[in-house]
Amino acid sequence: MAKILVIDDDEQIRYLFKRKLESKGHLVLLEDDGEPGLASFKENKPDLILLDIIMPRKEGLEVLREIIELDPKAKVIAISAGGRGRASDYLDYAWRFGAKKVLEKPVDLDSLATIVDEVLNN
Ligand SMILES: [Mg+2]
């Protein structure tokens, strides 16, 4: 069992990720934007963070940089909306900023569970 923090402004995604990951026995914490997400990271020290890139108030790349600054070994999976021209650019930055994995929405939930386990076990 791992403690996983999901930071995403999309309520439906938070719900789906939580349900899927809890079914795999993980403890799942949810936050809806970068600032509360960062606060939860500091407070709860999750084993893994699922981080949305595009959020209304504090965007994911900024959160990623701060998380990696606080803990260079933090396991962050960055997730960005597909279908937008700039999505792949964001994900490219996420790699460079230290994300362990980058995914494009829509994220297949079974693949997500597998990828989470891979990143946790690395
Ligand atoms: Mg978003």
Give helix % range. Answer: 40-55%
What strand line-up does the widest sheet have?
A: 2-1-3-4-5
- The total beta strand count reads 5
Shape category: globular
Strand content: 15-25%
Query: Given the structure, what is the number of helices?
Result: 5
Task: List the ions, cofactors and other small molecules found in this model.
Answer: magnesium ion
What is the averaged pLDDT score?
Answer: 93
Unreliable stretches: none
Just give the CATH class.
Alpha Beta
Structural class based on helices, strands and sheet pairing: alpha/beta
Radius of gyration: 13 Å
CATH architecture: 3-Layer(aba) Sandwich
As for the CATH topology, it is Rossmann fold
Put the structure in a nutshell:
The protein is an alpha/beta fold and 122 residues long. The chain has helices spanning 11-23, 34-44, 60-70, 87-96, 109-121; strands spanning 3-7, 27-31, 48-52, 76-81, 101-105.
Structural topology:
Layout: E1 3-7, H1 11-23, E2 27-31, H2 34-44, E3 48-52, H3 60-70, E4 76-81, H4 87-96, E5 101-105, H5 109-121
Parallel strand pairs: 1-2, 1-3, 3-4, 4-5
The structure holds magnesium ion (MG).
Task: Walk me through this protein's architecture.
There is one protein chain. This protein has one domain (3-121): Rossmann fold, CATH 3.40.50. It has helices at residues 11-23, 34-44, 60-70, 87-96, 109-121, and strands at 3-7, 27-31, 48-52, 76-81, 101-105. It has a 5-stranded parallel beta sheet, sandwiched between helices. By secondary structure, the protein is an alpha/beta fold. It is globular. Magnesium ion binds next to loops.
